[in-house]
Amino acid sequence: MTDSVGAIVLAGGRGSRLGGADKSGITIAGRPMLETVVGAVAAVAGPVVTVGPGGDTREEPAFSGPVAGIAAGLAALADRVDLVVVVACDLPDLDAETLRRLVAALGRPPADSTGRTATDSTGRPAAALAVDTGGRDQYLLAAWHRRALAARLEALGRSGGLAGRPVRALYDDEVVTRVTVGAPARDVDTWAEVAASGPIALAHVRAVLRAGLTPLPTTARPPLEAAGAVLAAPLVAADPMPREPVSAMDGYALACEGPWRLTGRARRAGDDSPAGLVAGTAAPIATGALVPAGSDRVLRHELVEVTRDGSGPAVVTALPRAAGQNDLRPAGEDWAAGHELADAGATLDPALTSAALSAGLTSVTVRGPVRAVVVTTGDEILPAHTPSPLPPGRIRDTVGPLLVEVLGRAGLACSGPPGHCPDTAEAMDAVLTGRAGSATSDADVVVLVGATGRGVADHLRPALDRAGATIVLDGVRVRPGGSQLVAALPDGRVLLGLPGNPLAAVSAAATTGRALVDALTGRSRPEVLVPVPGLDRAAAPGRTRILPARPDGAGGWSLSARVRTAHLADLAGAPALAVVPEGAASGDLVEIIDWI
Question: Which residues form the MoaB/Mog domain (predicted)?
């Protein structure tokens, strides 16, 4: 079959429903979708042409639509084949057998919309079009006779051009046979569909949460009360900085050219009494003091010489090294009123909070801080301070108290010590519905430790169903920490379910916890990327790894290649976690997260 069949794989769309993400690189079931599709078509077709950025060819102009992309792919195939398979890159379940069925259907007379047999002048269909499980035509999963496809593209080009044409226009007026292929025709257009495909790549978590969760409402609050929140609107200065001309150093305010007679009284910070200088005079001045009217220069003490001759006023003379120096800060030197100090998405950290106060702002528009409460689960868990010997089968809570700090580092403000949920359906229902106390009902995020599995004692998923929650994320392809869950509760709260093993819980809190704050607040957070040696030994096939990272004393980082998840001893002395993607090679850039 491959000798007479070619393939066009379209991988150049804007991905607008995915926030502009490159569909072809999105990982489903551990493989980029483009890799899955190309693998399927390569088993059926000889020449395979990929159309899109980084592909074999590109539609002109770029992003001019799938019809233009198909034309570019067909031109690259030329007349080397008789049949052409046309597929999109967003079909994660596509297999070779489905494509063989479509190609085989080109040899059968097609049926029209009423089910009657319909033929063209050759007695064969021009195209075989896939139909999904919902009965919908999948216009970008089809097989064509090459000559029929070329003729159709030529006709569309003559009647208005190919750019911007809907792909269904290819099939108008054509004799088409439809083949119900079911699941292999499923396409992935949204982050919700990505998440529904099973455990997702860690790299996709932030986008999935942004798409699936509703941001917190905006509030206007005094800067000091909003510390740790995220700006929902730009931070715009109300006052210039400084508001009036002031001295930057202890020294002398000077008027016009010198030498200057020291006739003015000393000016101190906070002194707003009227004062002025005339040409050729000077006055002592302190750092931060308003400069006297008439001053056009301030020189610090070490740049002048003060002499006194008899009973007259002292004389201030600039030293040669004072040439070009001026310690007078004009009004608005740092910023003018109306200047944007920070864009929406910036965290109101201590420095930005101080800047807001300097700019005269009495309120800022923010989302957050995100309020969270930690709840541990498991009847085997005892309080952290329980003395030995412990009853058989029981363990101390060695992660709950620490998670308060880890989540705080991620941007979640935890209230009080962790609570505990017994292993009963009733107790889990109380946590999810807010009946377990004000700590859980008042929080924006309930962080549940454990119960994310599917064991006999894991009551979380049935409780989410009973509560009417929407699961946004269920599993991440990462180790440790893959068994995690995020759900939107009906009352607007969010559940973050963490694995029960301590290292897995910390890893998920440090990564997904950050992404959750980003989604709820609109926070902008650039990654900290550093080169790390030895990644080829640390990387794992099919999933991302999270490993303790320690400074190596030479400006770099070293990783622990093997860690245990049942305790945090392997994190001791490691101020950061390294996010090592699948297939990472030595020296690649990896994200470093300050976990505590």
Answer: 373-519
